[in-house]
Amino acid sequence: MVDHWLKNSLNFCLPQACLLCGDTTSRQHPLALCDSCIAELPVLGETCQRCANPLEPQLERLGNYLKHSALLQTRQCGQCIRIQPYFDHSIAFFPYIAPFNNFIQAAKFKGKFATARMLGKLMAQQLSNSINMLDNRPDSLLPVPLHPSRQRERGYNQSLEIAMPISNELKIPIFTDLACRITATPPQTSLSLKERKQNLCDAFHIRGNVAEQHIAIIDDVMTSGATANALAMKLKQAGAKQVSVWCFSRAEPPS
After folding, report:
1. Cα–chain-centroid distance for residue 139?
2. C-alpha distance from residue 137 to each of 36, 58, 108, 134, 211 (Å)
3. Is the dihedral of CA 177, 104, 39, 76 positive or negative?
4. Are 39 and 119 spatial neighbours (Cβ–Cβ below 8 Å)?
5. CATH T-level assignment (fold) for domain 41-250
6. What is the DSSP string of the chain?
7. Neighbour-count burial of 78, counting CB atoms closer than 10 A to its CB (0-12 exposed, 13-18 middle, 19+ buried)
8. Terminal CA-to-CA distance of the chain, rounded, Å?
9. pTM to 2 decimals?
10. Which residues pair with 219 in a beta bridge?
11. CB-based contact 34:15 (threshold 8 Å)
12. pLDDT tens across 120-168, in order?
């Protein structure tokens, strides 16, 4: 953990090279990307307002997409119409393709928690443009908790690192003590949709007061939605009034 902190502290002190094109970026630049590359980043088009799954196979470019359509959707996908998830609304800005999948993998498995902060800053920029379009602001942000053994192994929770810039930008508090993960579940990546749901059965416990609150779950990527749904179910059972899911990236759901 100390090594990670030292390496990332040096990165903030020294001139940065854009992670995509290699050009030098300003030391004061909030992201490790140059302006040209930021403008060309792909973002999701129209998405389901319930689960953020793309409704059309369409990508936009961030530079031409000032107000994100995911905050304006009223349509739901067929899956959410058939079986409504426990969460009420989802936002995901970026597709799970290059370069975002590489950023997320680095943030989760390669000790690059500064990259997780960069993802949070990108999310915060987009949310700040459109937060007033939401029906109501969340009362608090809840990063998806890791099991203690997983957090000790990784040294940090990438969802918390993503949540910090969002909290700073939107002035919404983070409450990490609202929930904990009580089951050390196997990774979801190799599991089918049915197996993902079973894998997360009773994985979370709510230990804080969420009665009548609007909670926004923060995570790096949503694939099947099983993790968010399992956590949202526990929040609703504990009395939460509304549960939103804010994810950096949306991946294609497994069959």
Report:
1. 17
2. 31, 28, 28, 7, 16
3. negative
4. no
5. Rossmann fold (3.40.50)
6. -HHHHHHHHHHHHSPEEPTTT--EE-TT-SSSS-HHHHHT-EEE-SB-TTT--BSSS-EEEGGG-SS-GGGT-----HHHHHS--SS-EEEEEEESSTTHHHHHHHHHHSS-HHHHHHHHHHHHHHHHHHGGGSSS--SEEEEPPPPHHHHHHHSS-HHHHHHHHHHHHHT--B-TTSEEE-S-PPPSTT--HHHHHHHTTT-EEE-S--TT-EEEEEEEEESSSHHHHHHHHHHHHTT-SEEEEEEEEEPPPP-
7. exposed
8. 37
9. 0.85
10. 247
11. no
12. 999 998 888 777 767 789 999 999 999 999 899 889 999 999 999 999 9
Question: How far is CA 242 from each of CA 89, 114, 212, 214, rounded to the nearest angstrom?
Answer: 9, 31, 8, 5
Read off the pLDDT of residues 80-129 as tens digits, 9 standing for 90 and up: 999 999 999 999 989 999 999 999 999 988 888 889 999 999 999 888 87
